Amino acid sequence: MTENIKSTLRDSPLMRWFILVLVSILMFATYWFQDFYSGLKPLMESQLGITSSQFGTLIGLTTIANIFGMIILGGIVLDKWGIRLTAFVFGSVAVIGGIINALGANDVFSSDPATRLRIMIVGRIFFGVGLETTCVLISRTIVKWFKGYELALAMAINMGIGRLGSALGTALSPDIANNNAPTAVTFAASLIAFGFICYIIYLIFDVRIDAQMAAAKESEDEQFKFSDLLKLVQNKSFMLIAFLCVAFYSAVFPFMQYAPDLLVNKFGFSYALPESAAQVNLFGSPMFGTIAIYLGLFLFGVCFPLVPSYIKSKNAKTSSLVIMSLLFIGFIYIFRGTFSAWIVNGPKAASLIPMGTILFTPIFGKMVDNKGKAASIMMLGAFLLIFAHITLSVLNSRILGYCGLFSLGIAFSLVPAAMWPSVAKIVPEYRLGTAYAAMFTIQNWGLGLFFKGIGTVLDWMNPEVVKEIQNIRAGLEAQGLTSVEIGKEMGLLREAHKMPIYNYTIPILMLVGLGIISIFLAYMLKRTSEKEGYGLELPSNH
Q1: Could you give the CA distance from residue 530 to residue 202 in angstroms, rounded to a whole number?
Q2: How many domains does the chain have?
Q3: Residue 451 lies inside a defined structural domain of this protein
Q4: Is residue 90 assigned to a domain?
Q5: pTM listed for this prediction
Q6: pLDDT given for residue 230 in this prediction
């Protein structure tokens, strides 16, 4: 069996990493589409007349089909019929969802606000079905190519590329929209289609690797049985890591959708960059300059753990880290003017949360590969989560707010870097599709509750703000202004501090409780995995 494995494509490091890049483009696109609305909340409020509660409904109902087990169905399809059929079916569903969402936003079906919102929600539901199963699909693909090699690092880099999509979606959606929200929605839908095409190209290599591994898979590739679901439920370690997944991600992903608006309302950040801001122009466009800076940060995040791993000499490893650190410091110094403008801009500053994961997740993934301590790392990440939400809800110091954002970025790196490779230790490979699907399903229960819950509580706690914003919009409508003109006028009022501000204290304070639950679950997982011998505290090759 060992001889057969060594003769396959996956034995080539160059081919493994090429495959990772190819499938991660789809991850980038899906995360962009998932999070780009966070930078558009005030524009949708002013241009499309959508309240915080309706905004929560739009992003929250993305999870509705998955709450009722659609991801598990996708996982069953993946384990029973393989990667290729799953990719065609669920990738197509995600693309169709993106198209419906964009057509609805552009008033192709109806210009009635209520009908428009319903159509956009339908599109998000379709996208949600494809999104989560696609994440399962990509995770299963990475395990297929990297198990026994750099699995934790590969998963960490893949997550980093996904977070790059989140960061750029959050940071650039207001620029792409240019006071017209449907433009940003159309761009995001196009990106999903491009990512799907890239994954279709990967399937050519999937056919080849399956043929090469035919003999080696005899002991691993068992057919899916519905009893596998029962076996997962009976696995205490798996259930603990699944509930840890829902508690942790429910405290992060919903927060990300509201983070730009929180920073503007609570800490006085701006939605617009000042005209004096030192922006980088690339090909004559500040947007391309912004993308280049984000890509630079991403490359540093990848190179810090990856380059030393291919250097044998200890002195050379140290030298490489010193050189990269000096280059990174120089990079920050060169663009210091741009960063100083970004850190007081709501969407740009909020995007630094997933950017933190880009820098740190590969490093922590490499650490899990080499040192282990996965359960302990998850406990530390949960503690940082509590600190972050306390500083961003109860306290009013901008400096502590920055500390909270930084802590959240670290936590968002630590926990996924340890969690997802741990599942591959707890669950047999032939059951991984179902296992990841079950985790995403449980995760969606929490996401659906808190996506909607934060917006609903925000409206409940700020009824006078909701009423005043609606009155301002109604007054501008009475003047005969178009929706685009209304969005622009209300944006100017917001930048002049003439719009009412939301109080986010209670909606964000709710998330502290999820951090406490996460610590408890991570501690129980550590104890249980030690008893059951899964070796979560051991390096990846044990």
Answers
A1: 38
A2: 1
A3: yes
A4: yes
A5: 0.76
A6: 79
